[in-house]
Amino acid sequence: MKSSAISFLLSSQNPDGGWGYAPRQGSAVEPTSAVLLALREISACARSCRLAIDWLRSAQHPDGGWGFSSIDSESGWPTAWAVLVLARCGEVDNALNQGVKWLLDVKAAQFDEDARQVGKKILAIDFSLRGWPWLSGEATWIEPTALALLALESIPGLAYTDRRNEAQRYIQDRRCPSGGWNVGNPVMFHSALPAQAYSTAMVLLALRRLAPESILSEDIRVLRAEMHRDGSVLALAWGLLALRTLGQDDSSAESRLVSMANQRRGWADNPFQTAVALMALRGNL
User: Fold this and answer.
1) What is the pTM of this model?
2) Full domain range(s) for residue 268
3) CATH number (domain holding residue 117)
4) Contact 15, 272 (CB under 8 A)
5) What pLDDT, in 10s, does the model give residues 115-124?
6) Contact 138, 108 (CB under 8 A)
7) In 10 A of CB 169, how many CB atoms?
8) Number of domains present in the structure of the chain
């Protein structure tokens, strides 16, 4: 299965070096980065990886960030994907440094005291804590925050203590009452909202490097339940990847994930989903 999935990824690479979310679809930063992470340790894929890295570099904006694709002029959350993959591929140079600077400098929406009180009353969250937004100037959410931390924590010796500590408090503030995370709203009008597999898996991947001691048994229990309840390729793959990164496993999730693959088209005929599934089966990002 792994060899056929790798063949699918190589055959679906675009002439410009990137990947889209489907074969022959325009190249985008997220799937290109995920495929690079999946293939970077395979020597037979070195040329394809080099082309993909070159495409990523060409898609970087003058402000140091990346947009959704090369034709998206607004830098946003895909910057974290690009920083993560450049760091993991050993591309330590100005492109990486500028991407890191964009991540550390990006602005999020600010809330006045009245809004903060509403946040406390209705959502039971602290609006004064900063995470990361999807786009500059917007509110912050769990998924772009976890992704940004995962990228920044991949760079040895990076000094961003204040930002790091605040982001850790932000994550703890957004934990669901029963454990795990959703998009960032753990409570609504005193009613607990459920955690989600993808959000929880991304946070656990980040916390493993950021603050492993803050991971609770409830978080892992919720992840196991939600990834099976959801049952999608990405829920199972991200969940399995997070568990294996934490030194745990789920043989049932692996069996379900493998059974969902197509021998010729990877997972869902989708390079992004195929790349994440391969990383999950391998056990590391």
Assistant:
1) 0.96
2) 2-282
3) 1.50.10.20
4) no
5) 888 778 888 8
6) yes
7) 14
8) 1
